[in-house]
Amino acid sequence: MNIRFLGQIVLQVTGLIYATVKYRDKEIDSADGFVPQTEYSLPFDGEWYTINGGITKNTSHSWDILPQRFAYDFIIVDDEGGSYHGDSKDLHSYYCYGKDILAPADGIVVTVKNSFPDCRIMDGEQTDPDTPDIGGNRIIIKHSANEYSTLCHLMPGSILVKKGQKVKRGDVIAKCGNSGNTTEPHLHFQLQNTAGFYSCIGLPVHFTNIHKRIFNSYYKVDSRPLPEKEDIAEGYIYRGLLVKNFGDN
């Protein structure tokens, strides 16, 4: 493990301890525990697959990592559940690589990281040991006093916005990449209560005007059970869903 990445792990652990102590009585453990002030769209065009994430402990991306409790990972898949065609080591073989990433709502850009390289695709779903940063290239947008969205693993050099810039819902802000702690190209998306990447708490994201459907080939790509009835709520998404904004093809 390289020194820079080890430093990232230390930051993540320190931030988790800080958030756990600071928000001990404000920790959110369900969608009912948070009322959003902003309407959010999916941060991409077309139909993508929700490979990780949900609003309950059973479906959570990473329940015990507070910033990522309600986070999502999105990829694009074919009818058989494959996320690429051709050489699995070639980033351009992945359907989502290089696709436009959109602002999920109006806001002001507060953080931009745009200089990390894409990571290599490793064998056995391992992450690249030379990864210099967990989140990779990323954008954090402030939408209201206590609502910030974070979009991670972006393509190096693809970010089109600057810190302090105002964005509108649906603006193209970057392209999907493979930077950061990732096994393959995908978009990591989360809503959080502060601009601190490591020291925040995650918030449930209520999406408006979206279409969602269960992926018919779910069990070809995922051994985890599909979410139960108690894991599902209107306007929220969870792993196993194909999702898109209304009006997208």
UniProtKB/TrEMBL annotation:
It holds the Pfam family Peptidase_M23. Residues 97-193 form the M23ase beta-sheet core domain. One of its GO terms (molecular function) is metalloendopeptidase activity. CDD domains: M23_peptidase (cd12797). This is Peptidase M23-like protein.
